Amino acid sequence: MDGNDNSANRIRWNELPDVVRAEIEHRSGARVRAATTQPGGFSHGLAARLELSDGRDVFVKAIDSDDSLAAMYRTELETAARLPSTAPAPALRFSLDTPGWLVAIFDYVPGHHPRLDRPAELAAVLSTIEQLAATLTPSPLPDLPTIAQDYGPQLQGWRRFAEHQPPADLDDWSRRNLDKLAELESTWTDHAAGETLLHTDLRPDNMLLRPDGAIAVLDWAWPCRGAAWIDLVALSPAIAAHGIDTDRLLATHPVTSDIDPVAVSAFLCALAGYWAAKSREPAPPRSPSLRRYQARSARVTTDWLGRRLRW
Q: Fewer CB under 10 Å: which end of the chain, C or N?
């Protein structure tokens, strides 16, 4: 669940058109001496550390403007440009929309993806989630859609299974409880309203643990407004995958300690159904591990949900 095998078949620095690389160097004020493609993630766009001739490092993301993921990249750079300086995220230095390519240059953040099975690293992640809730409430981007508007049509996997023939390989517990899962899933939006700017895609490979112990949150491509507890609950299956008592964690964390357990179960149910449905779709050709990740997430979340609900 920690994203170590999540790498897509990324575009490389030398695959960018000469004119795009030249413009990046011009705007950066130095030549690129070396480029290192960064691991992790499911997007096939360029994501690389650039070592500049003047000794500075920057981080570049880029994608063809006609690519199916270009809108996601545009959302990310527009969001990054509007995040407050107090948010634990790399600063966007500049962006380019030039000769058919969308480019974003960020501050380079040294570090590694946090390992959720290491108590100190998990503690840093949990502290950062508390910081996000405090810093991003109310949302500094009030014009964003709500989580119900963005995700309501997507988080209906159990309903679709119930209305059609469920997949033959669906586990016995989910098959027996399919109607109840669809009913619980349908209630998650009742609890999710709020005015916090949410990331909605927190995973270890979307975070970096810096040498000073602070966490930088990356890849703001799916922002929306909703309840402050959503991001922690969305990350919690990745924590549960390490055998950690995630129910106890949610009961004691400041962001979730006062939240109705029914609300948590409803959102977990919706996540499990989403992953169960998406994992059975054909794999994107340049992100072959995505469906495997979703299948693992579905199993972990469904198992945890079964223990919570005691059905």
A: C
